[in-house]
Amino acid sequence: MSVQGRAVIQNEAGIHCRPSAHIVKSVQGYAGKMRVWNEDGESDLRSMLSLMMMALTCGTEVNVEVSGPDESAQLETVTGLLETIYDFPPQP
User: What is the residue range of 31's domain?
Assistant: First the structure.
């Protein structure tokens, strides 16, 4: 069984290298499966390159699917990570 949700990318620069690295690092210990997709492509959330290749820009809506232990909580975590505003470097 799996749970699905949606996320809208909020980061002004989209999901580029640094946000991708943070997302992948944050979910790497999860034992289940996680994927994100839209009409332009699909990514396993454990693959930084795959996530970056989706070229997710600010305002892009994506579908998220999680299956495995504590999947509802993990779905909330993943959608939160995708909707985070990452500032690199932090702005004053």
Answer: 3-82
